[in-house]
Write a structure and sequence with these properties.
This protein is α/β, with parallel strands linked by helices. It has 2 domains: about 70 residues, no CATH class; about 170 residues, Vaccinia Virus protein VP39 (Rossmann fold). It is built from 8 helices and 9 strands. It has a 7-stranded mixed beta sheet with strand order 5-4-3-6-7-9-8, sandwiched between helices. The chain has a two-stranded antiparallel sheet with strand order 1-2. A hairpin with a 5-residue loop joins strand 1 and strand 2. The protein starts with a helix and ends with a strand.
Length: about 240
Amino acid sequence: MRDKGSLDNDKDIIKMKLNQAFYRYKKLLITLKYFIKCPKYLKRYLGDNFFHKRTEMPIKITPFLKLTCPSPIDLGLPWFSYSAIDFLNDYLKPFMSVFEWGSGGSSIYFANRCKSVYSIENNKQWYVSLQVKISKLFLSNLKLGLVEVGLTANEDDYIQSIGSVKYDVISVDGYEFSPESRKLCFYKAESNINPGGIIIIDDSYLYEDIRKHNKAKRFMVLRSVGPARLGVTTTDVYFY
């Protein structure tokens, strides 16, 4: 006979799984409502997420329903909103230098459009996967750095990995070690951005206080669906 502690643990696991399923259903409903009001990105979303030739990333809707979509690395796209990607398609120039906290499809995307890209990654497995892809694509202008927070480094090492170099574009889209991680990266980025440059912060709906406290001349909130993800997100762009 199982003891009370074991039964309580089972209840906690079931509760957690139900909460996760509810969260995914909620994101799916938000996505569907978005397309009813704004069908602009529907064809693109379906093409990137479900009809691409590579299907490597599972999107788990419920414990019984799982969709697959390409990895952002295969798509060669940032994990941003489509509206932000459209803006960057027009904004980026071949002479620009880019720094990223968080690597992936965005690294490939920037490297195909800009002079140089330096991306810092925390996850070693993801880092190795991206290195393989970079080699296949012969992206000599893309440099990856690995800072494993909690293993060989701390959060401050990760934030300070940008050094003192200034860049034309800085992207804040890395792992969130704490609720303050991306905000700390953003404020560090403000001292490393070139005049006329931009700082990008993804999932910016989580960091709305940055919109009130920044040194930018102006900023844009770009809200829409995006590649390799359920739900609607916002990507903010700050101009300096």
